[in-house]
Fold each of these.
Amino acid sequence: MSRWGRKRIRIIEENCVLCHLCEVACVVAHSNSKDPIKAYKSEGLRFAQRFRLLFAEPVFENPVTFPAICRHCEHPFCVDACVTGALEKTEEGAVVSNLVRCIGCGNCVVACPHGAIRLVELGGRRVALKCDLCQGWEGEEPACVMACPNRALVLEEEGKESLPLEALLATDGGSPESSSPYVIAGGGPAGTAAIRGIREVDEEGRIILITPEHLGCYSKALLAHYLCGEESEEGLIYKAKEFFHRNGVEVLLGRRVVRLDPERKRVVLDDGEEVEFRKFLIATGGKPFVPPMKGLDKEGVFTFTDFEKAKEAREFIEANAKRAVVVGAGFIGMEVAEALSRMGIETTVVEIAPRILIRALDDRGAQIVLDLLKGRQISFRTGDTVEEIMGDGRVKAVRLRSGEVLDCDAVIIAIGVVPNTEVVEGTTIEVG
Ligand SMILES: Cc1cc2nc3c(=O)[nH]c(=O)nc-3n(C[C@H](O)[C@H](O)[C@H](O)COP(=O)(O)OP(=O)(O)OC[C@H]3O[C@@H](n4cnc5c(N)ncnc54)[C@H](O)[C@@H]3O)c2cc1C
Ligand code: SF4
Ligand code: SF4
């Protein structure tokens, strides 16, 4: 939480002379010792300031210099972009990062239009650092504001931003339907980001979130960590009960929307219950794509796009597997292979493309990842695919198109996802 209420740091570029004093003050305020020498020399925080100082060549006469500090936006794109729940907006409006949850993916860095997030190496991990409005600092103002001798940083009441959702949601504000709830199908990042968006323009309207997942709103990006036991079931959850309570959201866990009736403004749930809505958001994400191959029904075959499947895979592999085959060498396949190798499972990745990560990285980048994973005892078969999963009831091996047979006890299919559009099937809504 921020001690400054709704005040924010404003940057006055004309006054900034790039003296770096704000940077030093930021590092010290976030150090354990609160001592500049210890912070820089023994706590390893030399590059751990929570903003960057920018210098641009002169446009007219003078160079432009200023610290790119977080605006703690009303609509923080960074929070919406983070798939692990490492970033959140507190009740007081500060946008803060939880370094324990951060996996250093950099989505937030790309999403922030102000360049206010830095990816840095801290304690052997790459994490996203950003201004947290000096939580835990006991000064009268944030440390950078106090340190700046030129008043290039000032703490003041934030102005009201324009609300992009307002126009959209206000369209039926006064209609008789406005007492009906907003209904959201899906509790992933899209569904939960929508809750925040709705609350910014409508503080009281009823919101119902429906999700078939019993675990609630959890991070899929952490599933591979869960597979190898490095993350707990509870640790996956990134929107806890308090978030829904605070936002007055009714959450229907373990329930699925099976039909949409746009004319009557109702959705039908899997148990036949009908729920009326004012606005309905389809945030149902994707479902695993599974290519045709023989033997898919064998025990020991898993997809890897939701918690239930990851849990089944983990329990089965821990109890039964010494060797596994991962089908697909995209990001998810690579994550799964790496997690399996951490579990001590002899792992082979089969990829139909001529090399791994074909849609994600260039040749050089992919080679770096390949070398890293080969060093972890993971084997690869590229330009090939699984044609048959063999075994009597339970997986024993896979036969590749090339004819090679790989002995294994488990197969994880990680080929990608296709949009989950079942909700609109049978309606006139176009899927594009
Ligand atoms: C293993 C794995 C690792 C990943 N790692 C990363 C990463 O490191 N970085 C990154 O940026 N992205 C990563 N992703 C992708 C990221 O998780 C997705 O982009 C993101 O979850 C999409 O969010 P979403 O809300 O659109 O959909 P989802 O998160 O898929 O959520 C959709 C929700 O809708 C629910 N639903 C489906 N049908 C219905 C229905 N009929 N009624 C009600 N609810 C329904 C689903 O159960 C699900 O809970 C990863 C994905 C996976 C599977
Ligand atoms: S990090 Fe960027 S997007 Fe996120 S709140 Fe700060 S300024 Fe906004
Ligand atoms: S780098 Fe960390 S905080 Fe940023 S989006 Fe990724 S997990 Fe979230």
Amino acid sequence: MSRIALILVCLALASPALAQQRLQVVTTTTDLRSLTEAVGGNRVAVTSLVPPNFDAEEYQPRPQDVLRLKDARLVVRVGLDYDLWLDRLLAQTGRPEIDRGGPAYVDASFAIAALELRGMSVGPGDGHAHGSGNPHYWLDPGNAEIVTGTIVEALARIDPAGASVYEANRAAFVAKLASKLAGWQARLAPLKAFPLVAYHNSWPYFARRFRLDFAGFIETKPGVPPSPSHLAGIIEMMRARGVRFVVREPHEPDRDVAFVASKAGATVVTLAASVGALPNAVDYISLFDANVDALTKASAAR
Ligand SMILES: [Zn+2]
């Protein structure tokens, strides 16, 4: 065997071993996976429990999720009652270190200023989502700075040798995000004048950052499909306020969205509320690129 062939064989044998040495991180969502990858770089291997383009608020855990958690060195969740189903999985896993309060457990909503806060948390059994506040906080790029800070702290705690790498990765990511943000804000500025309607209220953090005005929602309450009287009220409001755009996420039912849009003469815009929900939203930064593209295209076509 030539020396080069021998080196190639050695590399092939070594790479699975290297992959094994990576810190196994499990996140509930694809957005947290992308943010963890951004700061963890090649020291981590990250799995998201909820597959792309699933509604994480309605997720039904699968048997393999418990197996994934058994191997996890770190668990990262959205919190704010968004992924309540994780608690049952963590209990089944029987590893206190990754359970609430454990050293390898990260609630990414820590230090986030939540919007639409309510006095009392409600469980998933009462038929609607958004218990203790609106949980879609990752849709403000400013909050990614806070979330990556929380993740870096946890990674450095369980892998102190990588601490400086995690800090450097985060600094580079935050700088890239800041430069992208200016462009996104400039491109969305013309939409400030036009109120929007969405199927589900995923958008208050996005709206605050980009100064958009979501005037109403097709769902009667978060997680509750619309009643005919609610739909009629939304259509009336859209006509009165001149709402031109209805935002839909790909997993949401098309029928009610199409009905409302046609009755009010509005355009349907499909946006991704999570990484992977649209084919071009492959990571955290391209999630915003995809949404800004979709909104500016729809606006230009009117
Ligand atoms: Zn929601």
Amino acid sequence: MCRHNGLMTSDPAALTPFSDIDKRPPEFVALLLAALEAMAVVPEIQRVRQVAREALRPAPGQRLLDAGCGAGEVARQLAGEVEPGEVVALDLSAATLTAAVDRHDGSKVSYIEGDISALDFPDSHFDGVRCERVLQHVPDPDRAVAELVRVTRPGGRVCLVDTDWESMTVDGLPDHLVTLFKAHLYGRVMREQPGIGRTLRRRLTRAGAVDIEAMPVTCYFATPGASISVLPMFDPQLAGRIGIIPDDIHDEWFTAVEAAAARGEFLAALTIWVVVGTRPN
Ligand SMILES: C[S@@+](CC[C@H](N)C(=O)[O-])C[C@H]1O[C@@H](n2cnc3c(N)ncnc32)[C@H](O)[C@@H]1O
């Protein structure tokens, strides 16, 4: 039985489901947005964002760009920190931006549709730029990073955040299931750029940024319940629907996940990289 009804596979040419959200059925768009919002409240993700916030160093009066803003919660938070400055929240997806605008709280944020690989802003337009979990979804991350640096003023900071999916580690499950799952994840679901997080430092260096700091933040989950918003492969409601677990091991996988949790032996971890650099004068 195929559980995912084509939700992940409506366009086989798409790099990832997040690279062309607007071409997906409305049900899938709602699913992705709900996933983003659920993730935003996970303490481990808040820890990553705190590291990123400190790296960006927002200050009153600045103009910042949140490139690939999703539902826009970080842009709105930053707007409070740069007051009387402003934040531009940019995303490729019109559906995502509509959701972000629906959540607007009156803070000084402008929502703009655009592609981080070809930004419609002049050079040096922003005091600082952040870009979280977007580069894994673009076809040419180096080009996008060059754009992010170009629109940052000399002396301004560019903060990149992305996952190293190949760092994902699991304990408590039978080895043969983990092997089958990883072959599916890296061979079929994430064919492109699963290790993007660890490449951010190199990409910022190539784009000419200086004073680069790279901070790997490892998110640790001791129960499947704590992990599901970040690791959908442990979510029995979602995993099958988005095709992240192969159909033929789905039931065995979740039986094993439940059993590991019941024994208190479940463990999962994932490293998300926060990398910051400065545009030279
Ligand atoms: C995984 S979400 C991350 C959203 C947000 N940064 C967060 O951390 O919650 C990826 C976002 O990147 C956007 N995106 C994908 N490709 C893009 C591109 N080329 N330019 C701008 N945004 C893009 C998607 O529409 C989606 O909103």
